[in-house]
Predict the structure.
Amino acid sequence: MPVISPKEVQSSYDVVIVGSGAGGGQTAYTLTMEGLKVLVMEAGRMFDPIRETAMFHPPSVAPLRGVKTPDKQYGFHDCSIESGWDIPGEPYINASKEDKRQFAWWRQRMMGGRTNHWGRVSLRNGPYDFEMGSRMSAGPDWPISYDDLAPYFDKAEMVAGIFGDSEGLENSPDSSPGVLLPPPKMRAGELYAKKKTAGMGIPFVPIHRAVLTKTQDADRIPAKIHPGNKKAQKLLADNMRRRAKCYFATDCHRGCSIGAAYDSTTVHLTPALNSGNLDILPNAMAREVTVDKNGKATGVTYIDKVDGSEHHAKGRIVVLAASSQESVRLLLNSKSNLFPEGLGNSTGLVGKYITDSVSSSFSAQIPAFENMPIHNEDGVVGQQTYMPWWMCKEQLAGKLDFPGGYKLLMVSGRKMPNLNAGRGYDRYNDDEEILYGRRLKEEARRYYGSFQGIGAQGFMAPNDDCYSELDPEVKDKWGIPVLRFHWKFSDDELKQVAHQQEMMAAILSEMGGRFSRSPETKNPIKAVKHGGRIIHEVGGAIMGDDAKKSVTDQWCRLWDVPNVVVADGAPFPNTADKNPTLTIMALAWRAADRIVEDLKRGDA
Amino acid sequence: MLEMENKDTPTRIDRRKSLKWMASAAAAAPFLGHDVFSAGDAASPSISRGYGLDPDMVKVYNPGELWPLTFSDEQRQKVTVLCDIIMPADETSPSASSLGVQDFIDEWISSPYPDQAKDRKLILKGLDWLDEEAAVLGAPNFLSLEFEQQTAMCHELAKSAKKSSKEYPGSFFLKMRDLISGGYYTTPEGMKDIGYVGNVAQIEWNGPPPEALAHLGLSEEDQLQ
């Protein structure tokens, strides 16, 4: 079974999956390893990370030194094609005109989805994150606990290949022994930050990221992942052996031609294809999930983007993994006599309760970093360390005025220079003129690598003001109704951002930092990043154990139509202080196990 | 068998150049034997007559290749002088002009995208201003001035730019400073000059060398995680 065009689509599949990113890739992997016949449809084209990623190109060989443009919205060499906040012919609407009520929606139309453009930060949701309702009165609890997902976290991590360490921290879980790859050694600036902040009581530890710091153990892991399934073991082992370990050079956001960084195409879809059980259909824009007269899903209607024609793919089970809001849109657009408000929407909750990482940043110039002896500190390029949330106890005791925590990501070091590398030094001297000439070259050598940024990403509980719905008028270029977003940060988020700003300034002060502005402790709305900007948006089809208060059950099956499974971020009832991707994979794997069971029992 | 028939344009791969800095990546390609995920198909509409939503990321691009350039010979020479004043050669590294940064400036102001279009106005106006100011000094134009005079003129601009980053013509010089220095530091030679020695494949990552630790007052003990 190969990469196909619409005319090669088979008459029926066990499972039709919409989307090829972390959720769709993981689901396809799990199902095909169990022998199910699967179709993955993706709205973008095929993309080959081996041949198409510009890992080592300097900006000087890119147009405009690789800066962001409307065509490449994260820069020229970023591994995103046909992608962006604004894509021609694919609009979305914001209901409000107010600045901080705008929601920004990143779409990634290519095989592998957003996993191509990803920092690879892979943190597990912690035990408290599943019970923020009962613990902190902050939104609903999840219908599952951390223990339900823990084995799936282990498996997802072993397959993807994640580095990290075990720290024994409260609510930032360790992995089982032998699961993680060794973390990279800390950079000079990271060791400095760790030492200087030691007295503040904030843990400073290796982050977990989907980057192979070591080749995977292809002799041992496959048997643990697929006990008793020789074929799956061999497929996984073969794929692990194809992946090289990190070169300790170049940004993962450019994509990885050696397979060291996880992306869905390299890690999940390749062994799934090699199983012979997967068809991949690129350029297929899903329009709606179809149902029969008994209210059971029968497949997906899609538009072939190559010629604009409409087709249908049949499946016993339909999995939506198109990214949380694209899956919401599909559900809302799947209207029928039986489901006039869209699929799974008898409660009117589809689209409701979107959450996102609550984020702000702060930066400083660190005099101690000036004139650093020249050395290569690429490491794994990007995040190597972070500060996981450290105040769970104070929070539970009511000592903080917001309910969930945040993590701090440190961004520093002697990174590859970009177009801004010669500016920004003027404020650090008393010269009468801006720097230029020999003096600029000297000062650039002195200050390069001396800037320390910190980014905070925190918990968000669902609220009634953050949701999406179909716009009554606007359609995309295929005639499919588009989403209209509503967004408003609550006081909880803004209080958290004020705290973030204060802490980041305190940390940078400990490092001797010089600021160019004050932290926004009084006016956090100025500092908070717009909804959607961190590309961590989840929710819209939240899971629960009460069919009246949620859209899916704990296996991500629609309450109304149980043979439709939502396997991306849409079922998340909240956003933890962790990045969502690894939890998406673990949930998708658990949902896929249930699909296998349901099909065996003939329930679907 | 797994190739996407009719969906791959052969010219796409043919025109890719093999690059020096790609050698290491190419050498590792056999690790990933699959050739299923072949290159693209549908033509991308550009919203801007730029390079479109699906450009070849691996290709090496040169100014003038994607959109026509703007500078007359004279404008180009003036920008070359500015490159020599803003990023001159010194003991350790070459000048911006010897690295062709003036061509990058031309590519920049000729770009079809909105951000650069704003700079286009400012820069073309500023280049005219240089001649007007030369006329005040009694010279036919900026290029006929001695290099010392040209530098002195820029120095005055640099002073007004420090006083106010927004006020013209200091704002013109600030823009040229930012673009020329940025254009410089994004070349392999400029990266070396500023002290970036990464972007090379390594077998292991061993953390910072002892002299970097010493610079920060750290010992090897601090390295034990």
Summary: Chain B touches chain A through 105 residues (CB under 8 Å).
